[in-house]
């Protein structure tokens, strides 16, 4: 190794190192870091900003409007690139960094790589207390940035320039590891950012990374294969990890070779095309009657790349109590959940190994016939559910209109509220990997920001496709400024704002547990004497978007066609019904806490009903 050195500041070393990292994807070498999102302030503008300026061509810095939305955009960028590329976010010391906390939690929950380069107070403490510093009287080393320990896979505070020699490779290794993938956080004290050090030039030599594929243990594969070969009613749960492993072809081939029905998680939507004969639909609380019927009747369940969260498992009521679960997952933590038979390893290699061990096995024909019959019934329900004019304007109708007019490679983005359930249940997948329903952290505000991040990634890889965002009025009001970001950066979005007058899905949950509507819809908020409708069209137009209102499905279709034809961000607003518009079928049981004691009989009755349903819940075995 060369003994040559180069004198750089800590900030300059960090950015020069990132600039030298590449990744090989399908034989093509690409820059690992696609650039970053930044809002400058004290704590990152003088030193980190200076370093970023000198690499602005190769590491483009997108100016954010809100640090939280920057993090959402970075998460969506990483999701589009199947966790093989990432963006960094840089924020100022204090409240700027604090705004990233929610986005870090989203990335952590969804196992997504994101690098946070955040300002910190002065290491010397000579000017303490500085502007926006949190002081802990008994622990002067404890600060705001320590809050990110809970939502980071890798966390470090750089207290000396030499530390980045160890910390940067460790952060990247974490972000690229299939089992440990998640956000990395580097706290950068304001003085240390500007301190210089004689770094070895070898640190900045170009490096090409490759994602590790961990082969599963042969004993675990043999045990899982034996269990599957004895199954009378097997089913595959296809999670988001199938796409991250780039194992869609292997999943499809495995299912076809053994004639095993496939049901999808929310993160696993778009693993199979809607038209595939073994695609039985989405499973769980926001699923389909077809997938839930198959899940409930299955005797052996092969979960591939899923963390088996409660919306997939129906709070662990979706499966028969005596059903056996096999969990193929790169992460040991996920593979062993609920006493699953674990197969720890890469999804592609795991499916290949299981397939070889199961040669000759095919699921019984009557079981496959049952699954397909259930799917036909569900397809008929969806066709009627999305039909315009079947009831007042609904999410499902809007989804159906867009689905019928979009191109196969258009990417759909939504999150939180009622839209994840409606998109998951009603969207008919036209191409692989084209659906981003953020429901790991179920985070309001992700929709438009995530759409912007996805569009940045999409424009790099397939600029001819569109990014389509479904957002409710509640999330729009929470975070909408990246409409302006998309206009400024020329990253076109098509945004469907579906206005139901407040937080209607939580109002639905409130009503479904016996409670009266209270403080969710604007019309039911006691502190709002005279509700009025927000003019979303004028608001979006003020940020530079083309914006129109659609009164019904026909007008929505015409507006969407115009948006497709335009090269500019378009916002289409349509009112939907808060009470009658919901998809009524396809729901598994979901555990919610309800009052054991209440003055209201309707609440007590629902409590008894929910507690009675708990008898179906698996207790971890």
UniProtKB/TrEMBL annotation:
<dbReference type="GO" id="GO:0003984">
    <property type="term" value="F:acetolactate synthase activity"/>
</dbReference>
<protein>
    <submittedName>
        <fullName>3D-(3,5/4)-trihydroxycyclohexane-1,2-dione hydrolase</fullName>
    </submittedName>
</protein>
<feature type="domain" description="Thiamine pyrophosphate enzyme TPP-binding">
    <location>
        <begin position="437"/>
        <end position="573"/>
    </location>
</feature>
<dbReference type="Pfam" id="PF02775">
    <property type="entry name" value="TPP_enzyme_C"/>
</dbReference>
<dbReference type="GO" id="GO:0009099">
    <property type="term" value="P:L-valine biosynthetic process"/>
</dbReference>
<dbReference type="InterPro" id="IPR029035">
    <property type="entry name" value="DHS-like_NAD/FAD-binding_dom"/>
</dbReference>
<dbReference type="InterPro" id="IPR012000">
    <property type="entry name" value="Thiamin_PyroP_enz_cen_dom"/>
</dbReference>
<dbReference type="InterPro" id="IPR045229">
    <property type="entry name" value="TPP_enz"/>
</dbReference>
<keyword id="KW-0808">Transferase</keyword>
<dbReference type="GO" id="GO:0030976">
    <property type="term" value="F:thiamine pyrophosphate binding"/>
</dbReference>
<dbReference type="InterPro" id="IPR000399">
    <property type="entry name" value="TPP-bd_CS"/>
</dbReference>
<keyword id="KW-0378">Hydrolase</keyword>
<keyword id="KW-0786">Thiamine pyrophosphate</keyword>
<dbReference type="InterPro" id="IPR012001">
    <property type="entry name" value="Thiamin_PyroP_enz_TPP-bd_dom"/>
</dbReference>
<dbReference type="GO" id="GO:0016823">
    <property type="term" value="F:hydrolase activity, acting on acid carbon-carbon bonds, in ketonic substances"/>
</dbReference>
<dbReference type="InterPro" id="IPR029061">
    <property type="entry name" value="THDP-binding"/>
</dbReference>
<dbReference type="InterPro" id="IPR030817">
    <property type="entry name" value="Myo_inos_IolD"/>
</dbReference>
<dbReference type="GO" id="GO:0050660">
    <property type="term" value="F:flavin adenine dinucleotide binding"/>
</dbReference>
<dbReference type="GO" id="GO:0009097">
    <property type="term" value="P:isoleucine biosynthetic process"/>
</dbReference>
<dbReference type="InterPro" id="IPR011766">
    <property type="entry name" value="TPP_enzyme_TPP-bd"/>
</dbReference>
<dbReference type="GO" id="GO:0000287">
    <property type="term" value="F:magnesium ion binding"/>
</dbReference>
<dbReference type="GO" id="GO:0005948">
    <property type="term" value="C:acetolactate synthase complex"/>
</dbReference>
<dbReference type="Pfam" id="PF00205">
    <property type="entry name" value="TPP_enzyme_M"/>
</dbReference>
<comment type="similarity">
    <text>Belongs to the TPP enzyme family.</text>
</comment>
<dbReference type="Pfam" id="PF02776">
    <property type="entry name" value="TPP_enzyme_N"/>
</dbReference>
<dbReference type="GO" id="GO:0019310">
    <property type="term" value="P:inositol catabolic process"/>
</dbReference>
<feature type="domain" description="Thiamine pyrophosphate enzyme central">
    <location>
        <begin position="221"/>
        <end position="354"/>
    </location>
</feature>
<feature type="domain" description="Thiamine pyrophosphate enzyme N-terminal TPP-binding">
    <location>
        <begin position="37"/>
        <end position="132"/>
    </location>
</feature>
């Amino acid at each position: 190794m060369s003994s040559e050195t180069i004198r750089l500041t800590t900030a300059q070393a960090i950015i020069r190192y990132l600039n030298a990292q590449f990744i090989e994807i399908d034989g093509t070498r690409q820059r690992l870091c696609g650039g970053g999102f930044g809002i400058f302030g004290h704590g990152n503008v003088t030193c980190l900003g200076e370093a970023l300026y000198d690499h602005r061509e190769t590491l483009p810095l997108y100016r954010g409007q809100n640090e939280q939305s920057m993090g959402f955009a970075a998460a969506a960028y990483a999701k589009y690139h199947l966790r093989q590329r990432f963006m960094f976010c840089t924020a100022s010391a204090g409240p700027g960094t604090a705004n990233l906390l929610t986005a870090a939690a989203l990335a952590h929950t969804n196992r997504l790589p994101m690098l946070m380069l955040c300002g910190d107070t002065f290491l010397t403490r000579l000017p303490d207390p500085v502007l926006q510093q949190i002081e802990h009287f008994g622990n002067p080393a404890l600060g705001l940035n320590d809050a990110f320990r809970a939502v980071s896979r890798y966390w470090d505070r750089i207290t000396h320039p030499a530390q980045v020699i160890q910390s940067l490779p460790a952060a990247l290794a974490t972000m690229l590891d299939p089992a440990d993938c998640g956000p990395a956080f580097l706290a950068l004290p304001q003085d240390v950012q500007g301190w210089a050090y004689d770094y070895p030039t070898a640190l900045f030599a170009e490096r090409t990374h490759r994602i590790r594929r961990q082969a599963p243990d042969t004993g675990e594969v043999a045990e899982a294969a034996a269990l599957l070969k004895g199954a009378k009613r097997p089913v595959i749960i296809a999670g988001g990890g199938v796409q991250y492993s780039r194992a869609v072809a292997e999943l499809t081939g495995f299912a076809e070779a053994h004639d095993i029905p496939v049901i999808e998680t929310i993160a696993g939507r778009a693993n199979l095309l809607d038209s595939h004969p073994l695609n039985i639909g989405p499973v769980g609380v926001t699923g389909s009657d077809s997938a839930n019927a198959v899940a409930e009747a299955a005797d052996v369940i092969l979960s591939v790349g899923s963390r088996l969260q409660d919306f997939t498992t129906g709070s662990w009521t979706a499966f028969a109590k005596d059903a056996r679960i096999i969990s193929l997952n790169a992460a040991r933590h996920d593979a062993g959940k609920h006493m699953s038979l674990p197969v720890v390893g890469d999804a592609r290699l795991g499916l290949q190994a299981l397939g070889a061990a199961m040669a000759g096995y095919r699921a019984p024909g009557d079981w496959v016939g049952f699954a397909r019959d259930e799917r036909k019934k569900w397809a008929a329900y969806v066709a009627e559910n999305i039909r315009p004019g079947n009831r007042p304007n609904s999410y499902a109708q809007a989804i159906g209109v867009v689905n019928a007019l979009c191109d196969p490679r258009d990417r759909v983005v939504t999150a939180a509220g009622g839209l994840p359930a409606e998109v998951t249940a009603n969207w008919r997948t036209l191409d692989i990997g084209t659906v981003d329903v953020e429901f790991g952290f179920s985070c309001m505000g992700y929709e438009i920001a995530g759409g912007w991040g996805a569009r940045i990634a999409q424009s790099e890889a397939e600029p001819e496709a569109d990014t389509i965002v479904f957002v409710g009025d509640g999330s729009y009001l929470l975070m909408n400024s990246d409409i302006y970001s998309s206009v400024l950066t020329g990253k076109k979005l098509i945004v469907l704002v579906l206005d139901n007058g407040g937080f209607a899905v939580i109002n639905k949950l409130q009503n479904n547990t016996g409670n009266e509507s209270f403080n969710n819809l604007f019309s039911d908020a006691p502190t709002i004497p005279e509700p009025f409708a927000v003019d979303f069209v004028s608001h979006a137009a003020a940020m530079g978007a083309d914006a129109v209102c659609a009164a019904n499905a026909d007008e929505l279709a015409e507006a969407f066609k115009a948006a497709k034809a335009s090269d500019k961000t378009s916002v289409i607003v349509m009112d939907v019904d808060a009470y009658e518009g919901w998809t009524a079928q396809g729901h598994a049981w979901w555990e919610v806490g309800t009052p054991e004691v209440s003055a209201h009989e309707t609440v007590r009755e629902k409590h008894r009903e929910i507690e009675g349903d708990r008898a179906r819940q698996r207790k971890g075995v």
